[in-house]
Structure to design on (358 residues):
């Protein structure tokens, strides 16, 4: 029987796995994906995340890869208005962060078990059994559900996910190349009607993360993301003829989703990261909060596993929810306010997403 089974190998699950393995805990980590992804998604590491990553021995690798001197270039109705240097966070793609963590985990002797989708969880007095869609059941002393906003772990435990989800998605997202566009800036185009297009360079690649207000059809219905739609949005906002977007490696949509789990623990099973809370992306706090969740849960599990059974162990395990449930509530309130600040700021020439970062 393994000590801890981690379901999900995003930034939360990988941080937790590295922390546990570093302390000699016997850990397994599974993911339903067939292999690693290449999506830029969460692209800013905060100083608090870097402190956690330092303890895992990977802060220097992240710093070498990321961009700590990104300048936000703001345009309004097509005209370049201002440049704002921003040095408080380290910018890089989420897939790059995960790659460094996976590499560290392999050094610690653990590999992500891909193609393993957990579909059942059964708890007993001294163990928890997870059932993959295919293959043998996995028994562990504890299980950490780090399986993202749609968390199967949370659903299997019947833990309510309280809050609200906007019916319509607000933005299209993607990773594209834009040959000819300067890679020194996070380009942010805004228009007086509140529409936006952002292109942020992903360091060490030819790729930019694209975020844009949705394109509507003649009936006012949002069009699905596509390279052609991205190009029309770019031409309308940037007015830079000759720049052709290409090589889309990821295309998605994003809607405002503000929810948190009613509990972070059920017996031997814990929730962390997006499985425990989903929030507006303004301020870039989602992934960073998952990394903190993982650090706190890692400490609780490590100390509980070496403590004698009984009240002491129980108290050590209870600390995780006591600390992180209020943190999740604060995150939801804070990122909702940050989103409001950004949506107001971008209607003022010269302002941009930094309104949500401060
Ligand atoms: C455009 C965009 C920009 C963002 N920018 C930022 C930012 O700047 N800063 C920031 O902090 N955050 C940002 N975020 C949010 C960030 O991406 C998420 O908060 C982060 O991915 C959460 O990490 P996680 O590990 O908790 O979950 P995920 O990354 O969602 O990982 C969950 C994993 O679990 C696996 N899984 C799911 N179900 C199962 C199952 N049943 N069995 C096995 N495996 C399963 C999935 O395959 C996945 O690999 C952004 C998000 C988007 C979309």
């Amino acid at each position: 029987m393994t000590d801890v089974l981690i379901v999900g190998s995003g930034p939360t699950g990988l941080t937790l796995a590295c922390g546990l393995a570093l302390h000699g805990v016997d850990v397994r980590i599974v993911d339903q994906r067939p292999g690693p992804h290449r999506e830029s998604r969460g692209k800013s590491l905060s100083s608090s995340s870097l402190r956690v990553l330092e303890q895992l021995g990977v802060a220097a690798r992240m710093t070498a890869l990321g961009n700590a001197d990104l300048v936000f270039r703001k345009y309004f109705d097509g005209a370049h208005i201002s440049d704002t240097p921003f040095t408080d966070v380290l910018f890089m793609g989420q897939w790059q962060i995960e790659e460094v963590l996976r590499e560290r985990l392999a050094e610690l002797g653990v590999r992500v078990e891909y193609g393993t989708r957990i579909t059942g969880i059964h708890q007993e007095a001294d163990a928890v059994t997870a059932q993959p869609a295919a293959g043998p059941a996995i028994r562990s002393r504890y299980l950490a559900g780090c399986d993202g906003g749609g968390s199967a772990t949370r659903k299997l435990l019947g833990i309510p996910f309280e809050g609200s989800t906007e019916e319509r998605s607000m933005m299209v997202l993607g990773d594209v190349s834009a040959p000819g566009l300067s890679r020194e800036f996070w380009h942010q185009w805004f228009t007086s009607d509140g529409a936006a297009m952002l292109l942020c360079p992903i360091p060490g690649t030819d790729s930019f993360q694209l975020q844009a207000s949705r394109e509507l059809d003649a009936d006012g219905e949002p069009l699905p993301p596509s390279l052609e739609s991205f190009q029309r949005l770019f031409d309308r906002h940037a007015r830079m003829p000759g720049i052709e977007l290409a090589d889309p490696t990821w295309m998605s949509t994003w809607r405002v989703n503000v929810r948190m789990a009613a509990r972070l623990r059920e017996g031997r099973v814990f929730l962390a990261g997006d499985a425990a809370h989903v929030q507006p992306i303004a301020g870039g706090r989602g992934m960073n909060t998952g990394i903190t969740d993982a650090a706190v849960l890692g400490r609780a599990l490590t100390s509980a596993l070496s403590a004698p059974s009984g009240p002491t162990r129980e108290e050590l395990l209870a600390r995780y929810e006591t600390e992180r449930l209020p943190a999740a509530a604060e995150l939801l309130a804070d990122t909702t306010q940050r989103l409001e600040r950004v949506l107001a700021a971008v209607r003022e020439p010269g302002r941009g997403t930094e309104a949500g970062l401060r």
In short: The chain has a mean pLDDT of 94. Residues 7-13, 30-33, 41-44, 94, 117-118, 146-148, 152, 173, 211, 254, 273-274, 281, 284-288, 290 surround flavin-adenine dinucleotide (CB under 6 Å).
